[in-house]
Each structure stands twice: as structure tokens, then as C-alpha cells.
């Protein structure tokens, strides 16, 4: 198996651009609130622009913040490099086996440390937040973030290669699919032990989304994890077949997920403080039993 490398790089300009992107991102309006909640002084600077461009304000802020925490940042980067050197190959082998993914010869990934309070990705580049570590708060390490983000690349490439024409998911639906599949894959025993996690539900917006299936209420990540495990270990299906089942299920509840996404974008992490919106968000989504999809995939693959 061809195994890619994960290389840590840093670009001041890239970090500046990613700050700007998420301060005005149409798909993730709550990320602006997350940034200003983490950096109150940046919010104050934005409110007192005094004719200064936003880009210049962000550049000055990042430069000063990194200078203030320079020693801590260097220590975090060195620890991250050491962790990747020890376990990245092992983790990627296990990820590849769980997703039946074959990497190309020159397919590598680049991890950029950022002081953003979240870890976005773009193509074969992802940013891993070091903000929590700077403040000595509990935070996922570079290995965890790498596997989470790389699983997104795998889902995107697999879906595009095999099902792009058959299943047309809206942007919000694909977002849910990849964010659900990341913890589903990471919770499998080969990765779970290496990443030292247990019952990881994924990003916060998934935590309070529930499914009603066969008159049973279940959290959405757990529901899809059971489907993966039933298909993978019971049905002996490959990842392409499992992904098709999951994509079809997501497609079947697409409108409900888009409604949930709108509520989250309005309230974000403050959702639990609004009783009416929280109750609406927690209202379970009814989904049909997936057995017919299992049968459909089995017939297509010639399995009995």
C-alpha cells in the first residue's frame, strides 16, 4: 500500500487568508462568532477600524499573537512533528484499510498550524488549531485532526469517482455526510485505540441531531456507525457500497438536515441557551429502515 506523508508547514499569508475567509464565509456564519469569542481584542479592533483594511488588522493581530506566544507555539509544533513521525504512517494504513482507499504515488498532505479556534481544510491542505494547546486547554492533537480531515478527502474522492452522477447531494448534505463519516471511521477499533478515543460523535453540531428508525431514537452519528459496522462486518461490503448507502440515506433526509443547518448557523454553540430553537433542533428525523438499500447494494455487487 502506498502511504502518503503528512508534512507540517506554515504560511503567514495562508493563515491571514483563512482568517478572512471564515470571518465572511456564507456557509459557516457561526465561525465569525467563534473567532470573535476566542479573540475579543480582534473584535474590538474590527469595531474600531478607523479606515484600516480588515486584512491589515488581521495581519497585525496574528503577528502580535504569535510573537507573544512564540515559545509555546514552537513547543507545540515540535511535539506535533514527533507525534506524526511516530504514528502517522500506522494511522494512515488503518484509515486506508477501513475505507479501501489507494493513495497515488505522489499524494501527500500538508498541515498548517493555525491560531483559529477550529481546523478547516482545503484540497490536500488542512489547518490544525493550536489555540487550545497554547492556553493549556484540552484539545485534539495533530494525529486526531489529520485523520479526521483526511477522511474528508477520501469521502469526497470516492463519492466523486463512483457516485457523482447517480447521487446529487446539495452542499449542506455533503457537509453532513463527510462530518458524520469522519467519527464513524475513527470509532472503528483499529483507529480508536491509536487515537485514544471512545464514542466520538464528531463536531458539536451533530451532537443533538437524532434519528427515528423502527420507532427507536438514536443520535445520528451512532445510527450511521451501526450501518457502517453492519455493512462492513456483517454484509462484507466494500467502502464504495457503504458510502452509496449512506449517501442515499442522507439524500432521503436532505431537507430536514438543511433545516437543522439553518438553525445551527443562527445560534451555533449558544443553541442550548434558546429553549425553543434547541427543542426544534433536537426533534428527531424519521428515516426509513435501510435494509432495502443493503439488498440493493448486494444485488449490484452480485453478492447473495
How would you describe this structure to a colleague?
It is a single chain. The protein is α/β, with parallel strands linked by helices. It has two domains: 1-161, no CATH class; 166-304, no CATH class. The protein is built from 14 helices and seven strands. The chain has helices at 12-23, 30-38, 40-47, 54-68, 70-99, 131-134, 142-163, 171-186, 189-195, 220-234, 239-252, 254-267, 275-282, 291-301, and strands at residues 6-8, 109-114, 121-122, 125-129, 210-213, 216-219, 285-286. The strands form two sheets. The chain has a four-stranded mixed β-sheet with strand order 1-2-4-3. A hairpin with a 2-residue loop joins strand 5 (210-213) and strand 6. Helix 2 crosses helix 3 (40-47), helix 7 (142-163) crosses helix 8 and helix 8 crosses helix 10. The chain is globular. Residues 299-304 have low confidence and may be disordered.
